[in-house]
Specification:
Blueprint lengths: L2 H5 L14 H5 L8 H14 L2 H6 L16 E13 L6 E12 L2 E14 L2 E7 L1
Antiparallel strand pairs: 1-2, 2-3, 3-4
The structure holds zinc ion.
């Protein structure tokens, strides 16, 4: 990742700069306090193609052996639609989102209701809810 990237607004939609947002989580300096924070950091990890971060924040029972990024797919933005639990006081929760992307010059989006679980004070992505 270039320096430019670090100076830019975080792709997760927080409107903070990346260095003051998901970078703390990507670098392992902070733990995601909520399921939504983990969700956002995983989205920006897809933007930056941070494979290791995506795998290590995936619940081990559901984690894929390999993670390949689709070629010529460009992530455009993230919109959180709904949340259920997933707060600091919870042990699990759902985050529903729309992720907009461009592929082969066509814009589209995927919508998913993701399930997250907290294990030993760390949030993990489990599966599509
Ligand atoms: Zn962020």
């Amino acid at each position: 990742m270039s320096e430019d990237c670090a100076e830019n607004t975080c792709p997760c939609g927080s409107s903070k700069r990346y260095v003051f947002c998901c970078k703390f989580l990507h670098d392992g300096l902070l733990k995601a306090p909520t399921a939504e924070a983990l969700m956002r950091s995983r989205y920006s990890a897809y933007v930056f193609k941070f494979r290791d971060y995506l795998l290590k924040t995936w619940h081990e029972d559901f984690r894929p052996k390999f993670l390949n990024f689709e070629k010529d797919l460009e992530w455009l933005s993230l919109e959180i639609i709904d949340k259920e639990r997933g707060l600091e006081s919870d042990d699990d929760g759902f985050v529903e989102f729309k992720a907009f992307f461009k592929k082969a010059k066509r814009k589209s989006f995927m919508q998913e209701r993701s399930y997250f679980k907290k294990i030993d004070a760390k949030w993990f992505y489990v599966s599509r809810g």
